[in-house]
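Try this one yourself first.
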């Protein structure tokens, strides 16, 4: 059974940092990524990384501030978020795809439950 378990969300002031982690179990994937959904808005792409290839892709809104990384030995993917802004406030979801994305991850086969990130001004 595939499980994706997120951790690391919380409340932080604008300009601060948070690190999200996603522990995957059950199988290996082609790509993993992060999406987010703010209240009243649709879920949007944040970043993705290949599992066996070192390719990353970021949404323009987070480029230069967020860094996605993976630890294959621990089967985890992390999202380091720096210079956080109030508009980054959302529920962040870990996503896993059987396909390998070399560009933007457009769909996922598996989703985590989500972790809340709140950035105060």
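Now uncover the answer:
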């Amino acid at each position: 059974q595939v499980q994706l378990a997120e951790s690391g969300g919380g409340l932080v002031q604008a300009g601060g940092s948070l690190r999200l982690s996603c522990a995957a179990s059950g199988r290996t994937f082609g790509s993993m990524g992060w999406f987010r959904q703010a209240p009243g808005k649709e879920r949007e792409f944040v970043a993705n990384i290949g599992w066996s290839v070192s390719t990353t892709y970021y949404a323009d809104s987070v480029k230069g501030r967020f860094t996605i990384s993976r630890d294959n030995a621990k089967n985890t993917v992390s999202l380091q978020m720096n210079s956080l802004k109030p508009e980054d406030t959302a529920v962040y979801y870990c996503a896993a795809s059987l396909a390998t994305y070399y560009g933007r991850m457009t769909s996922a086969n598996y989703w985590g439950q989500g972790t809340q990130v709140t950035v105060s001004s």
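Discussion: The chain has a mean pLDDT of 95. The radius of gyration is 13 Å.
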